[in-house]
């Protein structure tokens, strides 16, 4: 997975969900909405979070500001576009905490989060 586009400021307005707009600029053939959706959903993967930490992105103030900006995905109308809103939003929330951004470098924490996710999936299927 590629790294997200650079935003640089949390004052930017979130992109419009309607990615069909012909006036919206494309980045590699994709709209900003599509790129941010793909990136925010990738945050549900603990191994990807570990990758970001190993690249020292989680200590970069601009990247941390970008993570804060992405919290708009927790609100309508954006929320409905998330495939796995529970894990995605949980990770996005945890990434707001400096301690978590430091600790996710640990393979033990990555494994614990992966195990927790698998248990949650099993429980969800039992209830259904």
Compile the SSE list and pairings.
Layout: E1 26-27, E2 30-31, H1 32-42, H2 46-54, H3 61-69, H4 85-94, H5 98-103, H6 107-127
Antiparallel strand pairs: 1-2
Helix pairs in contact: 2-6
Protein name: Mediator of RNA polymerase II transcription subunit 31
Region (Disordered): 1-27
Family: Belongs to the Mediator complex subunit 31 family.
Short structural description:
It is built from six helices and two strands. It has helices at 32-42, 46-54, 61-69, 85-94, 98-103, 107-127; strands spanning 26-27, 30-31.
Explain what this protein looks like in three dimensions.
- This protein is mainly alpha-helical.
- Helix content is about 50%, strand content about 5%.
- It has 6 helices and 2 strands, in the order ββαααααα.
- It has helices at about 30-40, 45-55, 60-70, 85-95, 100-105, 105-125, and strands at about 25, 30.
- Strands 1-2 form a two-stranded antiparallel ribbon.
- Strand 1 and strand 2 form a beta hairpin.
- Helix 2 (about 45-55) packs antiparallel against helix 6.
- The N and C termini lie far apart (about 30 Å).
- The model has no long low-confidence stretch (mean pLDDT about 90).
Overall 3D form: globular
How would you write the strand order of the largest sheet?
A: 1-2
Oligomeric state? single chain
Q: Which CATH first-tier class would you pick?
A: Mainly Alpha
Low-confidence stretches: none
Which percent range describes the beta-strand content? under 5%
- The CATH architecture can be named as Orthogonal Bundle
- The first-to-last residue Cα distance is 32 Å
Helix content: 40-55%
Q: How many domain units?
A: 1
Instruction: Give, in order, the helices and strands.
Output: EEHHHHHH
Mean pLDDT across every amino acid position: 88
Helix count, per DSSP? 6
Structural class: mainly alpha
C-alpha-based Rg, rounded: 15 Å
Work out the number of β strands: 2
Please name the fourth-level CATH homologous superfamily: Mediator of RNA polymerase II, submodule Med31 (Soh1)
Family: Belongs to the Mediator complex subunit 31 family.
Organism: Schizothecium vesticola
Main location: nucleus
GO molecular function, one term: transcription coregulator activity
């Amino acid at each position: 997975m590629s790294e997200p586009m650079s935003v640089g400021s949390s004052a930017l307005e979130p992109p419009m969900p309607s990615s069909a707009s012909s006036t919206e600029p494309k980045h590699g053939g994709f709209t900003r909405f599509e790129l941010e959706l793909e990136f925010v959903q990738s945050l549900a993967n603990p191994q990807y979070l570990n990758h970001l930490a190993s690249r020292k992105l989680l200590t970069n103030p601009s990247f941390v500001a970008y993570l804060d900006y992405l919290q708009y995905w927790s609100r309508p109308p954006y929320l409905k576009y998330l495939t796995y809103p529970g894990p995605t939003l949980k990770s996005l929330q945890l990434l707001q905490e400096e301690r978590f951004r430091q600790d996710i470098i640990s393979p033990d924490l990555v494994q614990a989060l992966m195990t927790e996710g698998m248990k949650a999936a099993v429980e969800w299927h039992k209830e259904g």
